[in-house]
Amino acid sequence: MNGFRVGEISGIEIRINWSVLVIGALVATSLAEAILPEIAEGYSTAAYWFAGVTATLAFFAGLLAHELGHSIVALSEDVEVSSIT
């Protein structure tokens, strides 16, 4: 299967492709090092990193919810869903 297993929700295996980790690192770094210091000056580096990582995790949580929505609709239409990546 594609990616590595991170858990299971309602019998649907949740997997993460390695490329998502790279994208997450790039998004968090961009937010913490460039975007947030420019639009909200005066905070510590730790505060920018905390906000950047939190925003990245929120984005991925939304992505997971979106994909789970697809899975729920598929299951309601009697389509087998074994995992999402």
Note down, in words, how this protein is organized.
The chain is α+β, with helices and mostly antiparallel strands and 85 residues long. Helices cover 64% and strands 15% of the residues. It contains 2 helices and 3 strands. The protein has helices at residues 18-39, 45-76, and strands at residues 4-9, 12-16, 83-84. A 3-stranded mixed beta sheet has the order 1-2-3. The longest helix has 32 residues, at 45-76.
Mean of all residue-level pLDDT scores: 94
Taking all Cα atoms into account, the compactness measure Rg is 16 Å
Strand order of the largest sheet: 1-2-3
Q: What class, by secondary structure content? A: alpha+beta
Strand content: 15-25%
Measured as a percent range, the helix fraction is 55-70%
The main sheet comes to: 3 strands, mixed
For the record, give the distance between the C-alpha atoms at the N and C termini, rounded to a whole number: 9 Å
Q: What series of H and E elements makes up the topology?
A: EEHHE
What is the overall silhouette? elongated
How many beta-strand runs?
3
Low-confidence stretches: none
Q: What's the number of helices?
A: 2
